[in-house]
Amino acid sequence: MMWLVWGGFVLFVIGCLALDLGVLNRKDHVIEFRESLRWTGLWVAVALAFSGVIYSLYEHHVAALGYSHTPALRADGASAVLQFLSGYVVEYSLSVDNIFVIALIIGHFKVPRPLQHGVLFWGILGALVLRGMMIGLGAALIHQFSWMMEVFGALLVFTAMRMAVSKENEGADLEQGLVVRTARRFIPVSMTFAGHKFFVRHAGRRTATPLLLVLLLVETTDILFAVDSIPAVFAVTQDPFLVFTSNVFAIMGLRSLYFAVAGLIDQFHYLKFSLVVLLATIGVKMLIARWIHVANWQSLLAIVAILGAGVVASVLRKRRLDRATV
């Protein structure tokens, strides 16, 4: 029965992606700000609607979901919804830094705006597969070794400290990066784009376009960010199904979120500080979980409060600067 639940969700995701690429966004076009906001709102609405499905599955323990001899995996409908939404908010918020790096990649390679939607689609499709594998590995490690929660917690605290002292332009020299140098060593790469194609025939030789380098960098970036974000989600729920579904919905909304906020990230001056505090808080929670229990609703409230404080502080700062320049 469990495989039916997982299989049904995977089929639902495949259907959404097929509808997106094959019908709604069949032709390459420029995603404008208003359109990206509509798509972002739609994905958020779908995620919220799915929380109702989560409630039903766990309230009635369909396929034994929420019913376990392991205390951390026990959940009724309301508890599962709180865990799902907490994981979703954490993953979505941590995607902001991912968006900033993707914007650097796309800007560096000067990807034409009509092609950006397509390359992000394939990047997100690959991210879904890779995230599924990493979540499965993380769940297995936590199940096998209880001290892995402390390891993940320490990793998040370290990441928060590294993020706090990092500079915005770190890693900007993409041409000298390992991914690009390795790809160029084994695959001839042309200098020009050829629509949405990743490979073309040039002088009878199969040649990659710069779009392939962009895709490889986007996938690599997601793997690096997943090392931080997946342990963060495990801090609010250790249920593999809730971790996976919350990650999937956040990733599926990442592309539309990119077009909505990529050009506005600089205006949210304190958002990075909020993410640092969020990662550090989640890391500490994982480190003290053996001795101090934090309720699901308290976790969700703390996450929203930390992110909200960063957004509000950024908006107030921008208003002060605007008044000062008038």
In short:
With 326 residues, the protein is an all-alpha fold. Helix content is 72%, strand content 2%.
What secondary-structure arrangement, pairings included, does this model have?
Elements: H1 2-24, H2 33-59, H3 77-108, H4 113-144, H5 148-165, H6 178-186, E1 199-202, E2 205-208, H7 210-236, H8 240-252, H9 254-261, H10 271-287, H11 296-325
Antiparallel strand pairs: 1-2
Structure description:
There is one protein chain. With 326 residues, this protein is mostly helical. The protein has one domain. The protein contains 11 helices and 2 strands; from the N terminus they run H-H-H-H-H-H-E-E-H-H-H-H-H. It has a two-stranded antiparallel ribbon. A hairpin with a 2-residue loop joins strand 1 (199-202) and strand 2 (205-208). Helix 3 packs antiparallel against helix 7 (210-236) and helix 3 (77-108) packs across helix 8 (240-252).
Q: Work out the number of β strands.
A: 2
Number of domains: 1
Overall geometry comes to globular
Overall residue-averaged pLDDT value: 84
Describe the largest sheet: 2 strands, antiparallel
Count the helices. How many?
Answer: 11
Task: Please give a handful of descriptors for the protein shown.
326 residues, mainly alpha, two-stranded antiparallel ribbon, 11 helices, 2 strands, 72% helix, globular
